[in-house]
Hints:
Elements: H1 9-22, E1 27-30, E2 36-39, H2 41-46, H3 51-54, H4 70-80, E3 86-93, E4 101-110, E5 119-126, H5 128-172, H6 176-201, E6 206-208, H7 209-224, E7 231-237, E8 241-243, H8 244-264, E9 272-281, E10 284-291, H9 307-318, E11 322-327, E12 332-338
Parallel strand pairs: 7-9
Antiparallel strand pairs: 1-2, 1-5, 3-4, 4-5, 6-8, 9-10, 10-12, 11-12
Helix pairs in contact: 5-6, 6-7, 6-8, 7-8, 8-9
Amino acid sequence: MADDKPVDPTVADSLALALVDSSDAPILLLDGKLAVIAASASFARTFQIDAASATGRSLFALGSGEWDVPQLRSLLRATLSGAAEVDAYEMDLKRAGRGARRLVITAHQLDYGDRANVRLLLAVSDVTDARLAERLKDDLLREKAILFQELQHRVANSLQIIASILMQSARRMPSAETRTYLFDAHSRVMSVATLQQQLSASKLGDVELRSYFTELCDSIAASMIPDHEKLRLKVEADAGLATADVSVSLGLIVTELVINALKHAFPAGRGGAIVVGYQSRGSDWTLSVSDDGVGMPRGSQPAKAGLGTSIVEALAKQLGAKVSVADSDPGTRVSIVHETAPSGGVQAGPTRPV
């Protein structure tokens, strides 16, 4: 067949030489003995080799012999025999009096159909600067991670100190009203501290809400519920995830609603349970805090909204969710509902001060 005829080596070499001469990249054309047939101007300039004097010399004799690397020699011979191809082989070129350069070498056999006229086209890329930039980037990332861990540690310590001071101050205050405010502040600080721990433990940037709500409620219960047999705080949540910024808002909402229930749902030492619920359906979700306490106040005059109510409504609006408050007979249920196509904004209803 005509396609099986050997290629005229003179014509093929002319084409290969034209390719080498016109290349802006460092390229060598080698013969079957790995001697240089031609070197591109870029190769000669990059590696400070005289292109004319390099012709006819072995690749491994160029310069001061720095190209004579046993693994490169083996790979090129295997490529000549057709047993392999050098594709992105990396090596360090070490020259006396100069810094080592990191090279990526690619070599392909030019098949002339004549084993007596085997040619090898070898291309070289100097990636020293790119590798150095990558190492610097990796070093900066490691340094950033260390600094972030130190920051997390300092934040955690600071929050614990603030919470401890608030608790000690509350216990010393003779005014019941002032103690209440300080206990509220303590609970809010602890909620932020719990979230901070969750965020620092999250490697992917998402927070697993069930464990987060559980730790958050455990923290609130430890500081605000004196008798855990009489009054219980529990979590019923699915395996939902939230980004860090969303989880911050959800955690603050839970804190405000749980504190509200503890303050108003169980007067005079009444017992019962508070349940924090979370269910998600794709991008839709519902966060709820329900109790089996005394329920919402009766009468024509609704209770004046407190700071906690304003915080919950602001956070819900930020999340694109609506707030609903309803009797759960017994008790009260407050729901924060996020729907892909919400039917309305914040739903007004009977309130109790938060």
